[in-house]
Give the backbone structure.
Amino acid sequence: MKIEGARLDELSQQILVHLYDADEPRTVAEMKDDLGVQRQSIWYRLTTHLSDASLVMEASPDRRLFEDGPFWKLSEKGQRFVAEHYDGLAKPKSLEAVSEAVLEARREAESAKESVQGYRRKLYELRQEQEETEEVLKHITSKDHISRRKMVEFFDQKGNDIMQSANADVSLLESRIDDLRGDIEETRERVEVLSDYASAALNRAKSNEDELDVACRAHNNVHDRIEALEAKLTELEEGVDEMESGLLSF
């Protein structure tokens, strides 16, 4: 998607939707945690694609200090753009969607690679046919003049036809290779973004697991302390009972 010449890739669209849905301006660090993408990727798109299109702007809310870098929000133009194109813009993905997108990107890359290999084989076959025709022409030149002239004209025409067909196929191949290079580059960017997201999600899961482990240990410590206090209380009760028995004996 493009707006006024600026390229809005998938991550740029996700940033716009995220800022649109947020209740207040966000820092790059906050967007990193929410989108699961590296800071550099978010910062690059904020300061190039989105700023160049005047869709975002820096903001300095009073709610806290400026310690995490500038806060970002949508400009008025950005608000209108997202409102008009919201359904068509890329949304932040779940971990399951990220995994599926990574697999799909890998399949697309494999398909592009197979297409390039297929065109290379076809070009090789055309070159082989041209070389065979040239060999036949060399052989014909050893025959009598009349037959040679007719055969040369025939094979010259055939050679021209082959060359025209080869040139057309080469042009088509070059165009297809250019398209495939663009697809591969875009696929590589998508894999990089999605891999970053998956890594961040796994890191968050590991952090949650560590916090749960700490909570469990704290719970066990409290349980042990309760048992110790209960034992102490039992000991005190037994001491009181002995004191009462001693008083009664008087």
